[in-house]
Amino acid sequence: MESKLTSKGQVTIPKALREALGVKPGDTVRFFKNIDGHWVILPTVPVTALRGMFARPGRKPVSLRAMQHAIEQGAIESGLPRARR
Asked: Is the CB of residue 3 less than 8 Å from the CB of residue 14?
């Protein structure tokens, strides 16, 4: 697939690629450069799409505050500096 760059530096993502990525008008995509120098385009997934992804039967969901606390505790225990707020 190819696409032409406009004078404004914009490019249209071909329909087949948009469908493969599952992106629609108004969605956001990100561009990443791999360590081998190749560029990758990925759709940005809203955090709400992750809800329930790792649910375990009989376990209560963990709050974002509790997750942040656990991350900070792990950083402290490993000697990493605390996150700035």
From this structure: yes
All residues at 6 or more sequence positions from 41 whose CB lies less than 8 Å from its CB, including other chains: 13, 17, 21, 29, 30, 31, 32
Dihedral sign (CA 53, 59, 60, 66): negative
Contact 36, 30 (CB under 8 A): no
Dihedral pair phi/psi, residue 48, rounded to 5°: -65, -25
Please name every residue paired with 31 in a beta bridge, in sequence order, or none if there are none: 41
Question: Which of 16, 75, 76, 51 lies closest to 3 in space, CA to CA?
Answer: 16
Tokens of 65: 């505050």
Q: Between 60 and 19, name the one with better pLDDT.
A: 19
At 25-68, the pLDDT tens digits run 988 898 999 888 999 888 887 777 677 767 667 777 788 998 88
